[in-house]
Design a protein that fits this description.
The chain is an alpha/beta fold. The chain folds into two domains: about 70 residues, no CATH class; about 150 residues, Rossmann fold. It has nine helices and seven strands. Strands 3-2-1-4-5-7-6 form a seven-stranded mixed sheet. Helix 1 crosses helix 3 and helix 2 crosses helix 3. About 30% of the residues are buried. Bound molecules: S-adenosylmethionine. S-adenosylmethionine binds next to helix 5 and strand 2. The site of S-adenosylmethionine has 23 residues, from helix 5 and strand 2.
Length: about 240
């Protein structure tokens, strides 16, 4: 198993652990997993054995998730698991995006809409989210209405690749894109965005979570709670 794969699994586990604040259910699972998968007597380092058990749990969960999504992949082109960005990352990175009421932020795979709501509430920017998962979109829609943000925040059920390839209006208006997808999807999305954004007459920010965009040079990168976040700023096309 490659280091990158280990890291990817670990990242997702850390995210989930943070979201649930290591809730008792997860803690019980970890302990159960640990006792089932670790020969304690042969390991002198308890910390290391716990790390291995956690990693095994993460890998099994990740594989489970991937195999469940395999069926959906055929018709829905699923490009990422459902793994919300921890709020700490959102709060840390929002100031870097330089948003204000004249700007538009687009989350490509918006999940429960947490980036959209946090950005629009903090900066009054408009935000637009795209996702394929109906349950996530329902949660997002409910939060938008509850928080009375429907004049600033919009969501749509759509494939992110289809949106980037074919949507000229919202795409061209966007000042910031947020991406938190699988590595392969990030590679493909990086290429697509590069092709499309280099023609723009304005500078655009792209924030990628978990994986870097291949061939792009980040203006800022930072690891927060084990997740690496990359910020890119495109040059405007002056021709
Ligand atoms: C890792 S989650 C990130 C959610 C949100 N951006 C956040 O940071 O909290 C990825 C999201 O992308 C969505 N997704 C995966 N593949 C997609 C696709 N092809 N088109 C649209 N959304 C997709 C998933 O349903 C999931 O909600």
């Amino acid at each position: 198993m490659s280091d990158a794969y280990d890291w990817q699994c670990e990242c997702h586990l850390k995210c989930h652990l943070q979201i649930t604040s290591i809730c008792s259910e997860v803690a019980k699972l970890i302990i159960c997993y640990w006792s089932q998968n670790t020969d304690i007597s042969s390991l002198s380092n308890r910390k290391d054995s716990m790390r291995r058990a956690l990693l095994k749990l993460a890998k099994d969960r990740f594989r489970e998730m991937q195999s469940t999504h395999q069926i959906q992949l055929l018709d829905s082109n699923l490009a990422a698991p459902i793994s919300p960005t921890p709020n700490l990352i959102i709060n840390t990175f929002l100031p870097y995006l330089k948003l204000d009421s004249s700007k538009l932020m687009v989350d490509l795979g918006c999940g429960d809409g947490r980036w959209l709501l946090a950005a629009s509430k903090l900066t009054q920017c408009r935000s637009f989210g795209i996702d394929l998962d109906e349950d996530r979109l329902k949660i997002a829609n409910q939060s938008i209405l509850e928080q009375k943000m429907d004049d600033r925040v919009e969501i749509e059920r759509r494939d992110v690749f289809d949106f980037v390839k074919n949507d000229s209006k919202v795409f061209l208006m966007a000042d910031v894109f947020v991406l938190y997808l699988f590595r392969d999807a990030m590679v493909e999305m990086g290429k697509l965005l590069q092709e499309r954004l280099c023609q723009q007459k304005k500078s655009v920010c792209v924030l990628s979570i978990g994986f870097a965009l291949t061939g792009w040079k980040p203006s800022h990168e930072q690891r927060v709670n084990g997740l690496k976040v990359y910020l890119y700023t495109t040059r405007r096309n002056s021709t």
